[in-house]
Amino acid sequence: MTQDEMKFDVAQAALKYVVKNTIIGVGTGSTANFFIDALATMKDDIIGAVASSVATAERLESHGIKVFDLNEVESISVYIDGADESDDGLNLIKGGGGALTREKIVAAVADSFVCIADESKLVGVMGEFPLPVEVIPMAANYVKRIIEKDIGGQAILRDFTTDNGNHILDIQGLKITDAKALETKLDGIVGVVTNGLFANRGANVLLLGTPNGVKVVSA
Ligand code: 5RP
């Protein structure tokens, strides 16, 4: 079974978590794209969606799914999105696609977070995937120096501009044993917009695509 087939399967499985007659949150990336395509089959069952990126908004709209600005909505029933890594406590690294800040905002508003991923994303200790940190452009070099001095690893500037007009530093070489503490510490550095650890608000459910079917992991 290919990785794409596993992503397809978890996207289909996530439909069960869509709360009818509500507004849902939708993430960004290749797994989220499979989910958006699956969601199109039940688009008349939901009021609409809040998107975590411009790309996701465009894909939702291409299927005729109504996209709401977050400021227009009072609540989001469920947020469905992929991840770059997860540990078995359902702490996540996200932001490989650069949408981490909007993803984290939509996840914060949502009543629950269903993460969808193929089995390669579940790891013992997170950090092999470089941890993204969105920074205000003028602060990039300052934040890089502070990270390398106070946290460790190597912070590499990605050749990328986020939907918010900011830059991303990818921290390589971390072994993340206390995700909540690291998330909080990184957010405390002046110039950091947000970081790709989703631990203080991790996933509630992880749907993992495996060659033997979709495995459900709960926090
Ligand atoms: C984008 C993300 C994605 O969810 C993450 O990168 C996983 O992507 P994919 O489903 O393509 O493997 O956080 O910012």
Give a quick precis of the structure:
The protein has 219 residues and is an alpha/beta fold.
Set out the fold topology:
Elements: H1 3-14, E1 23-26, H2 30-39, E2 48-51, H3 54-62, E3 76-81, E4 85-86, E5 92-93, H4 100-109, E6 110-118, E7 131-135, H5 140-151, E8 154-157, E9 167-172, H6 179-187, E10 192-195, E11 197-198, E12 205-210, E13 213-218
Parallel strand pairs: 1-2, 1-3, 3-6, 6-12
Antiparallel strand pairs: 4-5, 5-11, 7-9, 7-10, 8-9, 12-13
- Biggest sheet strand line-up: 2-1-3-6-12-13
Number of domains: 2
Task: Characterize the overall form.
Answer: globular
> Secondary-structure element order, as H and E?
HEHEHEEEHEEHEEHEEEE
The percentage helix is 25-40%
Subunit structure: Homodimer.
Organism: Candidatus Thioglobus autotrophicus
Function: Catalyzes the reversible conversion of ribose-5-phosphate to ribulose 5-phosphate.
Protein name: Ribose-5-phosphate isomerase A
Q: Would you kindly provide a written description of the structure presented here, covering whatever features stand out?
A:
- The protein is of the alpha/beta class and 219 residues long.
- Helices cover 28% and strands 27% of the residues.
- A hairpin with a 5-residue loop joins strand 4 and strand 5.
- Helix 1 (3-14) packs across helix 2.
- It starts with a helix and ends with a strand.
- The mean pLDDT is 98.
- Ribulose-5-phosphate binds at residues 27-32, 81-84, 94-100, 103.
- Ribulose-5-phosphate binds next to helix 2 and helix 4.
- One of its GO terms (molecular function) is ribose-5-phosphate isomerase activity.
- Substrate binds at residues 28-31, 81-84, 94-97, 121.
- It catalyses: aldehydo-D-ribose 5-phosphate = D-ribulose 5-phosphate.
- Homodimer.
